[in-house]
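step 4 of 6: structure.
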Amino acid sequence: MTTEKHATEDSGQAEPATVRRRTGGRSARVRAQVLAAVGEVLLAGGYDALTVDAVAARAGVHRTTVYRRWRDVGGLLADVLDAAADDAWGPPDTGSLVGDLTALNQEVYDALADSGPNLTTALIAASFRSADAAAALSRFWEDRYARCAVVADRAGQRGELPGPVDARALLIAATAPLYHELLLLRAAPDPDLPRRAAGAAAASARAGAFGTGDH
Amino acid sequence: MTTEKHATEDSGQAEPATVRRRTGGRSARVRAQVLAAVGEVLLAGGYDALTVDAVAARAGVHRTTVYRRWRDVGGLLADVLDAAADDAWGPPDTGSLVGDLTALNQEVYDALADSGPNLTTALIAASFRSADAAAALSRFWEDRYARCAVVADRAGQRGELPGPVDARALLIAATAPLYHELLLLRAAPDPDLPRRAAGAAAASARAGAFGTGDH
């Protein structure tokens, strides 16, 4: 990841741990300020307002620092998404497949159904304009699918499924209708949608869809 | 629709039918040239290249004609989508629910999996930048869902479903994974995806998902 590489690139082997920690701390603080500024500029003015200079000014950081570390808007957007993935998030364990998928869908719904501009929608919109952002968004989602494979494993262990399933396909079946309704169709948010879409995907899985032999 | 209104707005009641037809013919021809030019400019240079002047030049039509009739880029994009909906398209009747959904998914797949820039992706990307395009895209899709309600009706008549279903929810369940994979995740096109996603949605429906009581 950008930050870690940057934080250590000038560190000699013999450098004391305290110095490395302090450097990492300042580096992490600058990164946090800059990435927060990216989100603020994006929400306030959209992609057209997003320039390295605008981000630097908003973050209170010298523009050469931003250019050196993130290069351009694509680098900034990619790092926002990489930073978002750098967490301990895991899918909630509700005790049933439909419960787990509903909880996941509720997170997607809350991110997308936010009235007014929201960062998730703004980042997805930006992915149509920046190849770096598009690649980072795909990485973010694929990482989330990998972490959520446990949802399918648990359902299998509980005997809810007729056999092993392709967890990624199951997760996309559950969540894709939310992105479609709220992001592409811009339909009025329906608070029951997370449960309904989760129920449909779970029913498919129980009926043998997403089987790993079905490829 | 834009064209019809324009073609008749200066027509007096007593105008002979032949004149109206001729006016409509020229009007329709200009519209076809301009809308084709919108697609060409969009594919060649993206939304940033799309201006009324660029479209007029490409279409070989005077710019004031374009301004008067379409007003701005949003009006042009909306009319491209309205024109696309102005057809006799209907869902193929393959004799089974999974067959019908697979055929629909194949059309979505063919539109999105096209390597290089394709008009469907370009129009969806434009919908993130133009409220008029976004509204027209929603109209286009809702009209397609309405036409496809017959897919659910036929499945019901064949006894494939346990009860009446929300056709729109079923259609979104079938198609949304394709938009998600190809448009948002930018995954490598998998030629088996249309069938798999259709199969999963059909399995849900057979298991009682999308029931009209489930709201």
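step 5 of 6: annotate
 - The longest helix of chain A spans residues 17-45.
 - Residues 1-22 of chain A have pLDDT under 50 and may be disordered.
step 6 of 6: archive
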